[in-house]
Structure of UDP-glucose 6-dehydrogenase:
Amino acid sequence: MNLTVIGTGYVGLVSGTCFAEMGNTVTCIDVDAKKIDGLKNGIIPIYEPGLEAMVQRNIDSKTLHFSTNLAKHLVKCDIAFIAVGTPMGDDGSADLKYVLQVAKEIGQNMQHTLIIVDKSTVPVGTADKVKQTIQSELEVRKLNIDFQVVSNPEFLKEGDAINDFMKPDRVVVGSDDDKASEKMRRLYSPFFRSSMDRLITMDVRSAEMTKYVANAMLATKISFMNEIANICELVGADVNKVRIGIGSDSRIGYSFIYPGSGYGGSCFPKDVKALKKTAQEHGYTAQLISAVEDVNDRQKMVIAKKVVDRFGEDLTGKIFAVWGLAFKPQTDDMREAPAIYIIKDLVKRGAKIQAYDPKAMDEAQHFYLKEVTNVSYFNSKYKTLQGADAMILLTEWKEFRSPDFEELKQQLKQPIIFDGRNQYNSQMMQDLGIEYFQIGKKQ
Ligand code: UDX
């Protein structure tokens, strides 16, 4: 099929590239000409394992194209995907200005029957707004063109996005039109070699809701475990053991019950807020969802509190080595990363930070921690330790999992680790003579 994907952010770029990989002809559109120029030359603006090679392969085989000209590419496409950003508005709701701007442009330029797919995470009712926007533009043009608006939310995870897209747990298609559903089924059938049952069709509003509910449910699991971790610590239990104890119940399961320094990223914080806001707009107070958010905000500061409990409120003259800045491993993304909040708090108390992250240091330096003084960046995890009072681990990159602890002890002023992701064994730390603070188990 001939596809147009509008928006070359995470979702747009990964979706467009994977559709091209499956043999479709895809043009990815963006208003950012510099970004499009880079992409034409295979330069991708994000770090995502495997993506660069896949983009290049499909550029070479002429299945993947990049352009700033939506009007031109709409003429020959079968399906247009809207994958532009839905940033959080000041009131916590998803801001639809980019989505509706694209809808307007589609209405102004479409020439023939078209399926328009909302792939961005959008509140319930957005497909109707997209439809109305396109319809009004067609009326201005005095045209009567048949089109359908379909909801097809994306569930990919950063860091494993290609795998998630190529081998999805499920694909949700929300459509009120059988022909459009059938076309979507054809598009996705190569992704389900064994079972088409994983393509779930439903009405548009339920599909829009499904995306928010999936993210809110996962965020709830995390906040629940973080709350349990804090209680475990107070009662003298070990959350790492409790986690294994409960995960063995197949009704609960092991995934997404790892306690830590709270969830971050581009989706959970924004989507939990937006769902709360949607409920509020309909006169409902979403108590549990509000609590999920509050627990997460508090959890981001747990490690900073442990540092203060150990070193005092005034951290003047103290140096901390921070391992990990990204909101999770395998990405350079720092959106809502706990590291931002923790580092700012420690610096405000007078501390100096020596930071290292395998991928996110550029983001930190040029954007998220740009204004924060007293943070220096090193190109190796061991270099951050020199003269530091303690090491603080905030992202569970594989390379932090089994470091040379003797080297660590030698470099630090005193052997102290604050572990925001429970990466080490506390007995081993004790045997090594390392003072070890973690989440959900008393030191
Ligand atoms: C998430 C969803 O998983 C994905 O389906 C959706 O499309 C977008 O949002 P992503 O934000 O890339 O994906 O990251 P994910 O791997 O889900 O992790 C989110 C956050 O939860 C991270 O900050 C991670 O550290 C945290 N987390 C995850 C925990 O604290 N504990 C866990 O057990 C799992």
Q: What stands out?
A: The radius of gyration is 24 Å. The longest strand covers residues 2-6.
